[in-house]
Design brief:
Blueprint: H1 5-16, E1 22-23, E2 29-33, H2 38-51, E3 55-61, H3 62-67, E4 76-82, H4 84-93, E5 103-109, E6 115-120, H5 122-128, H6 135-150
Helix pairs in contact: 4-6
């Protein structure tokens, strides 16, 4: 079977592209593998947020909450942070977008012990709330979360 030139170019482009974080295309969830333990991952993210001057709102230790009620839950901590000057631009685009702000980053550990940083894709958030006139702020938010989660990558 002979493929058209455009298909060959597309295949080559995809093969050469850098590996992106795992993302399910239909639910907007982005998962970034951490090279560090749960505690170190949380500490690294919090330090990076502080270094960038981003407002840190707090964290919810979901596994500790579950344990108080006799429920076993693998390690799971939700971090909330954001830049109000950036995030409120989405809420002014559609007040319902307040459901997705501030930014939430879930640091979780799977059954094999692998730690993951999980967040909503900002393009998905824009589509979810039908915000079509804020491309630059959404691109900025995407760059910032990418930079924050890059603190979880092993040094090269």
């Amino acid at each position: 079977m002979k493929l058209p030139l455009a298909a060959l170019v597309a295949i080559a482009w995809i093969a050469a592209a850098p590996t992106a974080p795992a993302q399910a295309p239909d639910n907007g969830v982005v998962r970034v593998k951490s090279a560090y333990s749960m505690d170190e991952s949380i500490a690294r993210v919090k330090a990076d947020i502080a270094a960038k001057g981003i407002v840190y709102f707090g964290e919810i230790d979901q596994s500790a909450l579950a344990a108080r009620h006799g429920i076993r839950l693998r390690r799971s901590t939700l971090l909330e942070f954001g830049n109000p000057a950036l995030g409120t631009q989405f809420v002014t685009g559609n007040p319902d977008a307040g459901l997705d702000w501030p930014v939430r980053l879930l640091i979780t550990q799977d059954d094999s012990g692998q730690v993951w940083a999980v967040h909503n894709d900002f393009g998905w958030i824009a589509r979810r709330h039908a915000i079509t006139d804020r491309d630059v702020p959404f691109a900025t938010a995407t760059r910032v979360i990418g930079s924050i989660t890059s603190s979880l990558q092993a040094p090269r």
